[in-house]
Amino acid sequence: MARDRGGALVIHKDGFPLDFTLRKVFLGLGRKGMESRLGVMFDDRIAAKYRSNLEVVLQHEAYHYVSSHPNFTIFDAMEHRHYIIQQLYLMTAWEMQAHPNSPGAAAMCISLHAIFGKDGHGGNAVALEKLGITKAVTQKYTVIHSRKLESLGKMFLSKASEEFGVDNRAGIELPPDLITSILTPLGMNNNSILMITDGQSSDVIQRLSSDPAIGPFFQVVPPKISTLTGDLMLAILSDVFIGNPVSTFSQYIVQARYALGIGNSYLFAKRNVKTEKWETFCNDEECF
């Protein structure tokens, strides 16, 4: 947007997007690093007499902006998104390396450390049982993101169904045969399946828990270790991710996985009317 309009990208030193979004997800976001690596300017560097000329862009407009530049392609957007996400996680990694015991590092790794241990060789069995994780956890794992959608989300899902053929139930109901149709060809059907959820998916949890193929490997990430950054890292680093096509949380996880070179991300599914079997589609980054 800044490039198309011939200007610089200026952000506030606090508030949105730094305090309300970026600093909740990433660590080590200092001014110098953000300016040099991300190419942004902070508002307090703009002389007061020029601030009235700044164009204010709201969050919704920025999120849904599509360039009309004749030389701009979707691959330019993907490449730039890769760079930005990689830089944000690089700064985060440096901060975690410098301060491994900081509250931010602990929050980011809370789920991974609790489930897999700090050394990555398995969490403490007694501690896991106290959390409610009673089944063995495998080193390879799938994360499912389940979220109940409000009326606006359901409207977007219906629109996606009309335009792209997305099944408007699959992303919400997560039927067991959909999950097995994804995991079996990948050889992941006998590995742990962990669900991150907004806590309103009791019917989905019950259905997957009681399924004979999925149930023995299925567990919900307990609320005590479920945080925004913890769930994000658990999902981003999973061997397989299955999410909701109209959830911005699921979409970001997939975008981050692509930027970090991690595959096997699935958001879009539909039933083949002839075979009555599930098919995933749009499994490449151009959809995101």
Secondary-structure blueprint:
Blueprint: E1 10-11, H1 18-25, H2 31-38, E2 41-42, H3 59-63, H4 74-98, H5 103-116, H6 125-131, E3 141-146, H7 151-164, H8 170-173, H9 176-186, E4 192-197, H10 202-210, E5 218-220, H11 228-236, E6 240-242, H12 248-259, E7 265-266, E8 269-271, E9 278-280
Parallel strand pairs: 1-2, 3-4, 3-6, 4-5, 6-7
Antiparallel strand pairs: 8-9
Task: Characterize the structure shown.
The chain is an alpha/beta fold and 288 residues long. Helix content is 44%, strand content 10%. The protein has twelve helices and nine strands. The chain has helices spanning 18-25, 31-38, 59-63, 74-98, 103-116, 125-131, 151-164, 170-173, 176-186, 202-210, 228-236, 248-259; strands at residues 10-11, 41-42, 141-146, 192-197, 218-220, 240-242, 265-266, 269-271, 278-280. It has a five-stranded parallel sheet, with helices on both faces. The longest helix has 25 residues, at 74-98. The radius of gyration is 21 Å and the shape is globular. The two termini are 18 Å apart.
Summarize the structure.
By secondary structure, the protein is α/β, with parallel strands linked by helices. It has helices spanning 18-25, 31-38, 59-63, 74-98, 103-116, 125-131, 151-164, 170-173, 176-186, 202-210, 228-236, 248-259, and strands spanning 10-11, 41-42, 141-146, 192-197, 218-220, 240-242, 265-266, 269-271, 278-280. The strands form 3 sheets. The protein has a 5-stranded parallel sheet with strand order 5-4-3-6-7, with helices on both faces. The protein has a two-stranded parallel sheet with strand order 1-2. It has a two-stranded antiparallel ribbon with strand order 8-9.
